[in-house]
Design brief:
Number of strands: 12
Strand order of the largest sheet: 3-2-1-4-7-8-9
Number of helices: 20
Strand content: 5-15%
Structural class: alpha/beta
Largest sheet: 7 strands, mixed
Oligomer: single chain
Radius of gyration: 28 Å
């Protein structure tokens, strides 16, 4: 008699007892326990499949934990298991060969849902077919349906269970509290239920509609990389793939998703198992794709921010003069339509004229913020081709050395770079992104100022070849910036994303929402600098809103 074989596709997010992102990532203490929990669930399911008359169970481990290796404990695996781990495609056609049933264990809900660990294939793209969101369980079931293989069961959280709508038997292992938190049932209860569910007869699976697969990404750059594989670009964030069979469409979509996910190599910090890697992986779960409906125009928020900004900078001190002139100079280039609508030409001219009163001396002991305002004043006058007092190279160099010695390396780097863009190269030898591994807040300001330098403070388009990688970093950082409530930085990240063409993305929408929440009735933010940033962000959003095109 011919041996009967079942295919068991397994993941980790839907395993009982796996309730946090750290439990999904190789190198963390939580992951050690996760491997044991997964192996126990696989063994329980195999017992049920054997009771149903199967003789062997091909186990395809689909979870990519960062180690490049299987998550299963081979030494503890059931003797009837045939473990398989193909990092490139856990649902490869060869895995469906010579199997009489398929089951899915430890699965999660589709990207964009509220399920724990919700994503589809990777953390960047959402997959749909004929308007229906697809989970990885949906992909496996569709491939099985096309191959004529019936399904036994799926296990995972309550959100996945609801999405399956009774099309296949389901074991609920946990309740999702958010995309990064869950409350599991006791694992021992789940093991019993898995064995019972696996013993039920397999039943035919309804195929997906014969329609293209649409992938929606979290940045335009990701979609562009996907399109390079042959996927058809639908708009900035979406591509679609076609093919004569679901297997062909799936394979082409997988190729497109793999190309897009190459951005993660530089965007995610450190190595799997480290706190920074876990933080960034968690952020990707929280980073939304582009909103279906764009938020309302920021016109009213722009006007309130402008009134507050002009009020906050009407004092005659040097810092206020420099901030007013530089911000309006930037606004004129970044959002010329809003600038004209608000009639700011004369206000900018007066602000620039007032810069003549700002001294350019940079003595030892001068606070970094004051020195910054003096260089800002010189920079604006020079950029606008107006007469200005000379900034002495020797004095600037000495001041940069002073700042660097006072642990003001970010200011020392920025002032040197600003002067260099104007032909005065007195830069110190400061490592690129010197604070990246030690001080995230300061490093993100460093990153936003790379945009400012490259665009000559929002006056020109981005042109640096590294700008796409900068943008991917800012996207990954956005959930952290919002969670921490860093309003000033949120404004800078928002207008940088606008420079990169990402004003229609989910990250930009999150940032604008934070700024709106923190804008006071009088239009001000936490201080004059944050209000200036919010003004630029709101005006930039207004300028780029679909209704203004």
């Amino acid at each position: 008699m011919r041996a009967r074989r079942a295919l068991l596709v397994v993941d980790l997010e839907g395993v009982a007892g796996v309730d946090s992102p750290a439990a999904l990532i190789s190198g963390t203490p939580e992951y050690v326990r996760s491997r044991a929990l997964l192996t126990a669930e696989v063994n329980a399911a195999i017992e049920g499949l054997l009771a149903a008359g199967f003789h062997q169970v091909r186990v395809s481990d689909s979870h990519l934990c960062g180690s490049g290796e299987s998550n299963l404990l081979s030494e503890s695996l059931h003797p009837s298991a045939e473990p398989c781990f193909l990092e490139e495609d856990a649902y490869a056609a060869s895995f469906f060969d010579d199997v009489q049933a398929v089951a899915c264990l430890g699965m999660h809900a589709a990207a964009g849902s509220a399920g724990f660990g919700a994503h589809t294939v990777d953390l960047l793209g959402a997959w749909t077919c004929a308007g229906r969101a697809l989970s990885e369980a949906d992909l496996v079931l569709a491939l099985a349906a096309e191959a004529g293989v019936p399904a036994v069961f799926v296990s995972g959280d309550d959100v996945l269970q609801a999405s399956l709508a009774g099309r296949v038997g389901c074991v609920r292992t946990k309740v999702a509290l958010s995309v990064t938190r869950a409350s599991s049932r006791p694992p021992e209860e789940v093991l019993v239920e898995l064995t019972r569910a696996a013993a039920f007869p397999a039943r035919p699976v309804e195929p997906l509609p014969d329609a293209p697969l649409v992938l929606t990404f979290k940045s335009g750059h990701q979609a562009a990389l996907a399109a390079e594989t042959g996927a058809r670009r639908l708009d900035r964030y979406r591509v679609e793939v076609e093919g004569p069979s679901f297997r062909e469409r799936y394979t082409r979509a997988l190729r497109a998703a793999s190309a897009a996910s190459s951005v993660l190599a530089d965007a995610v910090a450190d190595v799997p198992g480290s706190p920074d890697f876990t933080r960034d992986a968690s952020a990707l779960f929280h980073l939304p794709g582009p909103p279906v409906h764009p938020p309302p125009p920021a016109t009213e928020a722009t006007e309130r921010a402008l009134r507050a900004f002009l009020s906050l900078t009407e004092e005659g001190d040097d810092e206020s003069r420099a901030l007013r002139a530089l911000t309006l100079h930037m606004l004129e280039g970044h959002a010329p339509g809003a600038f004209a609508r608000l009639g700011l030409g004369a206000t900018l001219a007066a602000a620039v004229a007032a810069l003549a009163e700002v001294p350019l001396a940079l003595p030892f002991g001068l606070p970094a913020e004051v020195g910054m305002s003096r260089v800002d004043a010189w920079y604006v006058l020079r950029e606008r081709g107006l007469p200005h007092a000379p900034l002495e190279p020797e004095a600037l160099r000495a001041y940069l050395e002073y700042l660097n010695g006072q642990d003001e390396g970010l200011h020392a780097w920025l002032l040197g770079e600003m002067a260099a863009t104007c032909g005065m190269d007195v830069r110190l030898s400061i490592p690129e992104r010197a604070l990246r591994s030690t001080w995230r807040l300061a490093d993100l300001y460093w990153l936003t100022h790379l945009y400012l330098l490259d665009t000559r403070y929002l006056r020109l388009p981005l042109k640096d070849p590294g700008a796409a990688a900068w943008t991917e970093e800012l996207l990954v950082a956005t959930p952290w910036v919002v969670e921490q409530g860093h309003v000033d930085l949120a404004a800078e990240v928002a207008f940088c994303l606008q420079c990169a063409g990402e004003s229609g993305g989910g990250a930009h929408a999150l940032l604008l929402s934070l700024l709106r929440e923190h804008q006071r009735p009088d239009g001000a933010m936490e201080d004059a600098h944050a209000t200036a940033g919010a003004l630029l962000a709101f005006a930039g959003a207004e300028e780029r809103h679909p209704s203004s095109r």
